[in-house]
């Protein structure tokens, strides 16, 4: 369906990631959404001079709030016509009701009132949410999970978390639902959260790149470089990749056992490797499942647009709730 003036509202959407902030001006209608303008920048962090964790976390919050406000204003200035709201999504534990970023292992903040801080510097309504649940909402509305009542959307990026759709409803759990990346699967790697054995510490895109770089003694550009090395037959890359596939499979097995999803949608940077990811996970999962429903494994359809599209849906939902 084409986008018309009558059924479309323009909102700014901002997806704060552990590595990069993605922002977009989005036209949202009743059954469609389209990015009109896009912006990207590296996620700012406190400098190494901030030795105390709490101080560094607070400094990172200030830097990110500044960046988000600048992006909102930049995209509003580029818009043709009114911008009626903004949606901001962030990683970690997020309390959507209070607008508080409770905890992020990757960004180091705790109990940051991000919605309040951003709203204080903007004159448009601000919606606030969790990046993975927002991405899941977009894939459920417009992408690989559309039409499903029970689904898991599992982006694999700097961290790993899941959006959980059960009986047609997204589970939030006061912001704690879906943190599958911090299930202990029995290895000895320490996670950024401080625990040992987390899925995220071996199977996230950042973990794949880090573990390969440690073994070969040189920096790598990311998990995509490791995937290329796997295809070239590099034995170190293959070992690191197999560890990641085993970790992801065990995480998915937990979700299958508890939630019985019809489909698991794999997204994020690692999923861009296609069958190099999906085929071994599918094979391992089929071998591990006993009597449970084996879900379809699908690549995400919306790519790295999902977070922004989900943030835009949150912004429109907040306006409709008013």
TrEMBL record:
<protein>
    <submittedName>
        <fullName>Transcriptional regulator/sugar kinase</fullName>
        <ecNumber>2.7.1.2</ecNumber>
    </submittedName>
</protein>
<keyword id="KW-0808">Transferase</keyword>
<comment type="similarity">
    <text>Belongs to the ROK (NagC/XylR) family.</text>
</comment>
<dbReference type="Pfam" id="PF00480">
    <property type="entry name" value="ROK"/>
</dbReference>
<dbReference type="InterPro" id="IPR043129">
    <property type="entry name" value="ATPase_NBD"/>
</dbReference>
<dbReference type="InterPro" id="IPR000600">
    <property type="entry name" value="ROK"/>
</dbReference>
<keyword id="KW-0418">Kinase</keyword>
<feature type="compositionally biased region" description="Basic residues">
    <location>
        <begin position="35"/>
        <end position="44"/>
    </location>
</feature>
<feature type="region of interest" description="Disordered">
    <location>
        <begin position="34"/>
        <end position="54"/>
    </location>
</feature>
<dbReference type="GO" id="GO:0004340">
    <property type="term" value="F:glucokinase activity"/>
</dbReference>
């Amino acid at each position: 369906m084409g986008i018309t003036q009558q059924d479309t509202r323009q909102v700014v959407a901002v997806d704060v990631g552990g590595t990069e902030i993605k922002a977009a001006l989005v036209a949202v209608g009743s059954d469609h959404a389209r990015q009109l303008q896009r912006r990207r920048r590296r996620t700012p962090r406190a400098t190494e001079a901030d030795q105390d964790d709490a101080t560094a976390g607070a400094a990172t919050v200030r830097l990110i709030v500044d960046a988000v406000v600048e992006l909102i204003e930049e995209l509003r200035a580029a818009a043709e016509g009114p911008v009626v709201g903004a949606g901001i999504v962030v990683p970690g534990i997020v309390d959507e009701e209070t607008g508080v970023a409770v905890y992020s292992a990757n960004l180091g903040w705790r109990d940051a009132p991000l919605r309040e801080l951003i709203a204080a510097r903007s004159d448009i309504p601000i919606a606030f949410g969790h990046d993975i649940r927002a991405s899941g909402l977009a894939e459920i509305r417009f992408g690989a999970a559309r039409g499903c009542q029970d689904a898991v959307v599992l982006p694999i990026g700097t961290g790993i978390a899941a959006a959980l759709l059960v009986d047609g409803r997204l589970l939030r759990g006061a912001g704690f639902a879906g943190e599958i990346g911090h299930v202990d699967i029995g290895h000895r790697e320490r996670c950024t959260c401080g625990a040992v054995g987390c899925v995220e510490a071996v199977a996230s895109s950042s973990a794949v790149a880090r573990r390969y770089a440690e073994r070969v003694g040189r920096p790598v550009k990311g998990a995509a470089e490791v995937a290329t090395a796997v295809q070239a037959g590099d034995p170190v890359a293959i070992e690191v990749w197999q560890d990641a596939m085993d970790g992801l499979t065990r995480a998915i097995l937990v979700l299958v056992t508890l939630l019985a999803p019809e489909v698991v949608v794999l997204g994020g940077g690692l999923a861009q490797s296609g069958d190099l990811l999906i085929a071994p996970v599918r094979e391992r999962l089929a071998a591990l499942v006993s009597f449970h429903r084996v879900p379809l494994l699908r690549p995400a359809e919306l790519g790295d647009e999902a977070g922004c599209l989900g943030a835009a849906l949150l912004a429109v939902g907040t306006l409709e709730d008013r």
